[in-house]
Design goal:
Strand content of chain A: under 5%
Low-confidence stretches of chain B: none
Mean pLDDT of chain B: 95
Largest sheet of chain B: 4 strands, parallel
Radius of gyration of chain A: 28 Å
Distance between the termini of chain A: 100 Å
Bound molecules: iron/sulfur cluster
Largest sheet of chain A: none
Number of helices of chain B: 11
Helix content of chain A: 55-70%
Number of domains of chain B: 2
CATH topology of the largest domain in chain B: Rossmann fold
Number of strands of chain B: 8
Order of helices and strands of chain B: HEHHEHHEHEHEHEHEHEH
CATH architecture of the largest domain in chain B: 3-Layer(aba) Sandwich
Oligomer: heterodimer
Helix content of chain B: 40-55%
Largest interface: A-B, 69 and 71 residues
């Protein structure tokens, strides 16, 4: 027997999975560069959110057209993967359509029939997606942060899917034995006649070629994920699990500040006393965030999960009125900077070497941050539970508490609050004057 | 508005040895802003008519710190919060109602962790309860019946806290024709005031947010734009002026609409 194909297949599989695993490790390491945050609460609600939002796509269907098409592609993607299992077994053991020998013909035919229909629907959906992006030019895909790479990335994925689905159908259409079973070839029976003029051996070669390119394509696709916005097909699950569960309006209270404030308000505390032995100094290195390491790991996970769909930006009041702020850009910048930091660590034997850059200023300008109305439209719109607002607030905190760099009117407002307990310069003693006016 | 309102303060109640049912948190806008003060008075009028046993903090109230927090000044926010919580807890306050969604959100969501635990309601929720309990009634032929009204959801009431129906229920009870804007409820567009924008010039852009939102409202051809937040009220009022529609379209808080229906 000739084992060369089996060996080649095993090697390809190992290489594909190995490189993927390596990148997953890097991904996890990068996410862990973020600050720790306690998300161990409300497990059942979190599971429910994951089931509803990631598995159930509940936010996607808010926009019916793209939502429906996305569900088709998503269901197709998940279910067709059962077929990949068969391909892997066949490839490793030199069998052919192993499931057809263990499953009753009717069931096997039914399964493949479903895959074929899904493959066809995915193909059609992907074409509609492509038209929406490139011909109709739906606005949210053409905002300024959608530079060459994000645009190409989105299209590459669509081409990938078109090719993979075509190969799957061609592989079935040119499988003479499968066609002769005449069960499950719901779509491929219409493709088979295209090849009917060819000799049996040529058809067999086409079938083998389609089979190989299909599975190699899947391995390439798997490894493309890490570099793409398509990472969301994996990260949407953890991200919706760890997503915000508090009311949207609730911003976190900085614990370090709470400790400070307690000290200031407590007359019994001697502010100059040395910290008691064993008590850790709780003062953080800085308040707020100027770079990715200052954000929480959930915020970094958010950045890797972002699908760059722009639903957030298309609802952002600041963006709609021509301001520079785009919540999608906030997420894309965070990911780009995190990748840069990750590469820096790789290049310097696991240590980050100061590169004179940071997220604030080099990627995100204060002008963007100060345009936000904290309206939560972006958070509401995001189909995968990303919270761009939390990053904006974290960076404002840095600007104000570390750099005293608030716009001058805001400084006045804050001075008023400090002096007379209201954002305007009115006398505290006049607070009840409305009663008699 | 010169009618005499009954506005007891917590200090007075304490001196009389009684604990009011609910504290009315007026908020900085409701205390100082000329337009917002009218909303405050309208709400108190309703409280008086319904004979609600309430009190205010008066000069003991201080800014919740919402705007400082959203501007990034967590120190100032927590100083304000701790100071307010001390006062509220000293008066053993259990229940709070406010006409400002920003105060509502901060008191309800951000104070508990700092030691302030209260049952907090927005005034539209509170008035709804008064209606259900029959403590306040809308006259059979409401002056507003048949008027077209559109409601602008405040971000800090709607998206931030999921309260969409309380204000709408009140409007419906007035017998008005409630028309929704194309962006409403959880997809409502912000008025442009939140996140400390109220206190600064907008960043560079091609339009003001309140004008865009007013355009949303004008599309519904309303007689009245109803609001539930003093800041939204200012923004929408300015928007209507910018569109030169102030002669035909009023911007009124729901508390004002209800209070007017009581005359
Ligand atoms: S919260 Fe800020 S970034 Fe998000 S939609 Fe509103 S204004 Fe835009
Ligand atoms: S943050 Fe969410 S809504 Fe915005 S682009 Fe990313 S995935 Fe889409």
């Amino acid at each position: 027997m000739n084992y060369i194909p089996n060996i080649l297949f095993a090697l390809a599989l190992i290489a594909g999975l190995g490189y993927f695993a390596k990148n997953v490790k890097k991904l996890i390491r990068n996410i862990k560069l973020g600050q720790d945050v306690d998300v161990s609460d409300n497990k059942s609600l979190r599971w429910k959110n994951m089931a509803r939002i990631a598995l159930g796509q509940s936010k996607m269907v808010k926009r019916p057209v793209s939502g429906f098409l996305h569900v088709v592609v998503y269901v197709g993607f998940v279910i067709i993967n059962i077929e990949v299992l068969e391909i892997i077994i066949d490839g490793l053991f030199g069998t052919h359509r192993i499931f057809s020998t263990v499953l009753p013909d009717a069931i096997y035919g039914f399964l493949i029939g479903c895959f074929e229909i899904l493959a066809f629907l995915v193909f059609i959906s992907v074409i509609v997606f492509w038209i929406r992006r490139n011909i109709i030019k739906i606005q949210r895909f053409w905002k300024s942060e959608m530079t060459a790479w994000p645009k190409n990335d989105a299209n590459y994925i669509l081409y990938f899917e078109m090719v993979l689905m075509t190969l799957f159908l061609v592989m079935n259409a040119t499988d003479l034995h499968f066609q002769s079973m005449d069960s499950g070839n719901i779509i491929s029976q219409y493709i088979a006649p295209w090849f009917s003029g060819l000799s049996e051996s040529s058809i067999h070669i086409i079938e083998r070629a389609a089979w190989w390119i299909h599975i190699l394509g899947i391995l390439v696709f798997l490894n493309y994920l890490y570099f793409s916005k398509h990472l969301h097909i994996l990260l949407a699950f953890p991200n919706t699990y760890y997503g915000k569960i508090n009311p949207k309006g609730q911003l976190n209270n900085l614990e370090a500040v709470t400790n400070e404030v307690k000290m200031m308000m407590d007359p019994n505390v001697d502010p100059f006393a040395a910290p008691a032995e064993g008590v850790e100094n709780v003062m953080p290195a800085k308040f707020g965030a100027s770079d990715v390491q200052d954000l929480s790991w959930v915020q970094l996970l958010n950045a890797y999960t972002c699908t760059e769909c722009g639903r957030c930006t298309s609802e952002c009041p600041a963006n709609l009125t021509g301001k520079k702020l785009s919540p999608r850009k906030i997420m894309m910048d965070t990911r780009d900077r995190l990748e840069e930091v990750g590469k820096n660590i790789d290049a310097n034997n696991g240590e980050f070497k100061d590169d004179g850059k940071q997220l604030l200023g080099d990627y995100i300008a204060p002008e963007e941050l100060w345009a936000c109305t904290t309206c939560n439209a972006c958070v509401e719109a995001c189909p995968v539970s990303i919270d761009p607002l939390s990053i904006i607030i974290e960076m404002r905190r840095y600007l104000v508490m570390e750099q005293s760099a608030a716009p001058v009117e805001l400084n006045n407002m804050m001075t008023n609050i400090e002096n007379n307990g209201a954002p305007w310069p009115y006398n505290q003693m006049d607070r009840l004057n409305w009663k008699d006016e | 508005m010169s009618e005499q309102l009954k506005v007891p303060t917590m200090a007075q109640c304490m001196a009389e040895g009684r604990q009011p049912e609910v504290l009315f948190w007026v908020g900085s806008a409701g205390s100082y802003d000329d337009r917002a003060k009218k909303i405050t008075r309208a709400f108190v009028k309703i409280l008086n008519i319904a004979n609600v046993d309430f009190a205010v903090l008066g000069t003991e109230e201080s800014c919740t710190g919402d705007v400082a927090k959203r501007a990034g000044n967590e120190f100032l926010f927590q100083m304000q919060a701790v100071t307010n919580i001390e006062v509220l807890n000293a008066y053993q306050v259990k229940r709070v109602v406010t006409a400002c969604p920003h105060s509502y959100n901060t008191l309800k969501n951000e104070y508990p962790e700092l030691g302030g635990n209260y049952q907090v309601q927005h005034h539209t929720e509170f008035i709804n309860e008064l209606m259900k309990d029959g403590r306040i009634k809308i006259g059979g032929a409401s002056k507003l019946s048949g008027k077209r009204i559109t409601f602008h959801d405040p971000c800090y009431l709607g998206r931030a806290n999921g309260v969409y129906e309380a204000p709408r229920d009140l409007l419906k009870s007035l017998g008005v024709e409630l028309v929704e804007m194309k962006r409403s409820k959880n997809t409502a567009l912000c008025c442009g005031a939140g996140g400390a924008q109220m206190f600064k010039e907008p960043e560079k852009g091609d339009k003001d947010i309140n004008v865009l939102r007013t355009e949303d409202a004008l599309e519904t051809q309303p007689n009245i734009i109803a609001t539930g937040c003093p800041y939204c009220n200012t923004m929408m009022t300015d928007g209507v002026k910018a569109k030169e529609k102030e002669a035909s379209i009023q911007v009124l808080d729901i508390a004002e609409l209800i209070a007017n229906s009581q005359e």
